[in-house]
Amino acid sequence: xxxxxxxxxxxxxxxxxxxxxxxxxxxVVLDNLTTGHRSAIPQxxxxxxxxxxxxxxxxxxxxxxxxxxxxxxxxxxxxxxxxLPLKYYQNNVSNTHTLLSAMxxxxxxxxVFSSTAAVYGxxxxxxxxxxxxxxxxxxxxETKLAAERMCHYQSRAGKLRYASLxxxxxxxxxxxxxxxxxxxxxxxxxxxxxxxxxxxxAEMQIYGTDYPTPDGTCVRDYIHxxxxxxxxxxxxxxxxSSSELVYNLGNSKGYSVREVIDTVKKVSGKxxxxxxxxxxxxxxxILTSDATKAKNELGWxxxxxxxxxxxSTAWKWHSEHPDGYxx
Length: 327
Hints:
Layout: E1 2-6, H1 11-22, E2 26-31, E3 45-48, H2 54-63, E4 68-71, H3 78-83, H4 85-105, E5 110-116, H5 139-156, E6 161-167, E7 169-171, H6 189-197, E8 204-207, E9 219-224, H7 225-238, E10 244-249, E11 254-256, H8 257-268, E12 274-277, E13 286-287, H9 292-298, H10 307-320
Parallel strand pairs: 1-2, 1-4, 2-3, 4-5, 5-6, 6-10, 7-9, 8-12, 9-13
Antiparallel strand pairs: 9-11
């Protein structure tokens, strides 16, 4: 199967591209390289372009005889989305509309959509199920939910078969720790903590130590990048017999900020300064997934549920790529 991977030079997209190739699929990457890295996808067919370019997307779908699309080309920074909401509506909503329109024109029916747990906002209870209220609290979550709804109605119109996969915290490095996380600037806890262990940060800050959790710090659900990508392949296969799929993807187990910091110290063998600060607005005490539906319907089982294993792969990649990707 020929699969177009939109945003395939990014963290999740590059890992997905590698797994597709390893499993006998024919991935074609479309990326504008705004946040992605060309060196993360050295041996695949690559189209340098933007999802906003309708004619290019149609041409790419037709020329490469694409049979399914995976969409990872969203902006993902919550704080930035609050400062620049129109940027997020343009890329995450308008460009998804352009992609769906191009798929209709090129007669491509299947889509696996990269969504997020941010569609749930501040949950009323945890773990979070797919039926939990969708009440996003920032433009990032709101735009992802808008894209999901667009897919839903396009599916009801008989013009799309799609899977929406709501990620919790994608982590670690895949492809034998050759494909890691290189956001610029970085905002995710595990790579930030690794930067502190590498001496690239003067200290690691904990925002809030008085939450109603076992050690007072926020608890989050971390899922290894390869486990995440494997679920995409299973969802893609299930689209042969389904027109609309929605799944949470997480480990269904949470780890606190302090546990992450302690694990990085253990894996790296490095000590570093940890400072405590006040809570940040909008941080929920606990965000964990109920991934039972994905496990039951897709036969999906995470192979790397242990935090130490996840951190070990991330540490290996960062150690071997201290300055990130070369391009």
